[in-house]
């Protein structure tokens, strides 16, 4: 049930809660970190979505993997006790919560493990599962001039939180999602075992945990691939009125070899009106030099499209070299002439671009409003019908936040991970990032999300939910399709009592 709608808590609230004495447990396990109970756990009953709320028994701030392991083992001895790792609580549907169980605040471990490695000439960084990507970025760039290759748009997310899903942004077409860019994990399993795993060492746990929705273990350390960080980025937006031209160009860019395309490719849909959030004013990167209204095509279409790309370069590169390389790439594209906007900024500023939007949204009071987001992966073969029905009709008046759409390449994902994907080589990420205070109400937004998903099912679209959320096991079975058996087997191997990540609502601890 949705807390915001009926001001009650999660449906499991009516069920008997586990009965544990946290002080006694922490003494018995010689806890090195600390814990909070009562009102001090409030943060653990909230998330970015603002739709669900359940109260834990305690919020544990572990010092490291040993604390986590001992708490999980202690939880296994208490009937119905569950344990939820909380990264930065940026889930939408209560995925990092537990009703009456133990929430492990992974942020308390964020300084652990930080170490640069040079393995046969390639660089890697070991980081805590509780580290924020923004800190990984700034530390790697300032100390070593190196950076991870694949990102999310927004970086106040933890390493363990995004690796439990996938972690996608405009670099994923080239390097794959973040889960394709880690080579080793340390995981505390649902049995409390502290296990190091990789492609060759405990591969079932390694691949299972990547995109595994926290079901098999808590990621306490990740080894992330690095590459030299560029100094600068040219960030460019170009506008299309025709969907087929937009997708043709986006697919062209993501299918080219390294060195023959931009370094980042995303896109979004916007309303063909002057709405400040979803309309033309939201498109130019540099608001001072907005588009001249005279050149905006009067097509009468409800929505238009924007391709967003970025080009990396070094400070020492001659401006004409950068201009020439960018012009060479842009000349192959069919955007509307004159509808181009660009800015040059440092690589770190570019990657922290959503942080600035966050600061503004916090100042306007909309950051803390509910966010009934919907994220989907949709096969290339169905994206035209999706545009015609969803973008051009259902959400044509805007949603109070960005509407993203960009292509990804399946060959950059590893089938051995737990993520469920559409079948085709090219599929699109579609994200409806709603901010309720600026758009339709929570009820309308949730109903519209449901309507969109039901329409996709009814029309037989080849699609999957990203950051999935379902109410029943039947729906989870459908989501995983022929990977369901493997997912269940992995659960039986690593968390047989279903102690971990109860907020995902996939498996339930019953005794
Ligand atoms: P939480 O919400 O705290 O946890 C998520 C789930 O993972 C929970 O089930 C939790 O129990 C589990 N978990 C947390 N830590 C661990 C761990 N160490 N080990 C095992 N399980 C763990 N996603 C993208 O892919 N690309 C984007 O560009 C992107 N942008 C976003 C922008 C914003 C503003 C927001 C709010 C979200 C965005 N996301 C994006 C989604 C985001 O990746 C997920 O919501 C992610 O789970 C959030 O990370 P978190 O650290 O807050 O995790």
UniProtKB/TrEMBL annotation:
It comes from the Eukaryota. Its EC number is 1.5.99.12. One of its GO terms (molecular function) is FAD binding. Residues 7-18 have a biased composition (Basic and acidic residues). It catalyses: N(6)-dimethylallyladenine + A + H2O = 3-methyl-2-butenal + adenine + AH2. Gene3D superfamilies: 3.30.465.10, FAD-linked oxidases, C-terminal domain (3.40.462.10), Uridine Diphospho-n-acetylenolpyruvylglucosamine Reductase, domain 2 (3.30.43.10). It is an enzyme of class 1 (oxidoreductase). GO terms for biological process: cytokinin metabolic process. The keyword Flavoprotein applies. Residues 5-24 are annotated as: Disordered. Residues 52-229 form the FAD-binding PCMH-type domain. Its cofactor is FAD. Keywords: FAD, Flavoprotein, Oxidoreductase. Belongs to the oxygen-dependent FAD-linked oxidoreductase family. This is cytokinin dehydrogenase.
């Amino acid at each position: 049930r949705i807390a915001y709608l009926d001001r009650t808590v999660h449906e499991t609230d009516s069920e008997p809660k586990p009965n544990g004495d946290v002080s006694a447990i922490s003494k018995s396990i010689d806890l090195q970190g600390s814990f909070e109970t009562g009102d001090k756990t409030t943060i653990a009953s909230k998330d970015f979505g603002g739709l669900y709320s359940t109260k834990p028994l305690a919020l544990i701030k572990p010092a490291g993997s040993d604390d986590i392991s001992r708490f999980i083992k202690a939880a296994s001895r208490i009937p119905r006790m569950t344990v939820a790792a909380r990264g930065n609580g940026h889930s939408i549907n209560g995925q990092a919560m537990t009703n009456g169980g133990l929430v492990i605040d992974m942020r308390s471990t964020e300084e652990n493990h930080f170490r640069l490695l040079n393995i046969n000439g390639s660089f890697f960084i070991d980081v805590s599962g509780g580290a924020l990507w923004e800190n990984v970025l700034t530390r790697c760039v300032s100390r070593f001039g190196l950076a991870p290759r694949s990102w999310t748009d927004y970086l106040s997310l933890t390493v363990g939180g995004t690796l439990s899903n996938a972690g996608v942004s405009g670099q994923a077409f080239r390097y794959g999602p973040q889960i394709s860019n880690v080579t080793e994990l340390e995981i505390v399993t649902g049995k409390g075992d502290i296990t190091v795993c990789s492609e060759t060492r405990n591969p079932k746990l390694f691949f299972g945990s990547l995109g595994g929705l926290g079901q098999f273990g808590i990621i306490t350390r990740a080894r992330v691939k690095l590459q030299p960080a560029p100094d600068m980025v040219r960030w460019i937006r170009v506008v299309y009125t025709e969907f087929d031209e937009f997708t043709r160009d986006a697919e062209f860019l993501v299918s080219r070899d390294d060195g023959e395309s931009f370094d980042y490719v995303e896109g979004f849909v916007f309303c063909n009106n002057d709405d400040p959030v979803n309309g033309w004013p939201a498109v130019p990167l540099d608001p001072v030099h907005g588009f001249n209204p005279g050149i905006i095509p009067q097509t009468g279409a409800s929505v238009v499209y924007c391709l967003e790309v970025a080009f990396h370069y070094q400070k020492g590169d001659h401006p004409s070299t950068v201009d020439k390389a960018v012009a060479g790439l842009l000349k192959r594209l069919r955007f509307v002439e004159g509808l181009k906007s660009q800015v040059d900024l440092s690589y770190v500023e570019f990657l922290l671009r959503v942080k600035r939007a966050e600061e503004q949204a916090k100042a306007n009071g909309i950051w803390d409003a509910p966010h009934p987001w919907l994220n989907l992966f949709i096969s290339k073969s169905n994206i035209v019908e999706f545009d015609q029905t969803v973008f051009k009709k259902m959400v044509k008046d805007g949603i109070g936040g960005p509407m993203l759409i960009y292509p990804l390449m399946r060959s950059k994902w590893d089938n051995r991970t737990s993520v469920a994907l559409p079948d085709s080589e090219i599929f699109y990420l579609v994200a409806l990032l709603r901010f309720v205070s600026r758009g339709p109400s929570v009820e309308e937004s949730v109903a519209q999300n449901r309507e969109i998903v039901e329409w996709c099912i009814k029309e037989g679209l080849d699609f999957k939910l990203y950051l999935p959320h379902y109410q029943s096991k039947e729906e989870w079975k459908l989501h995983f399709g022929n990977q369901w058996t493997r997912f269940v087997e992995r659960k039986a191997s690593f968390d047989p009592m279903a102690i971990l990540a109860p907020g995902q609502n996939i498996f339930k601890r019953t005794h």
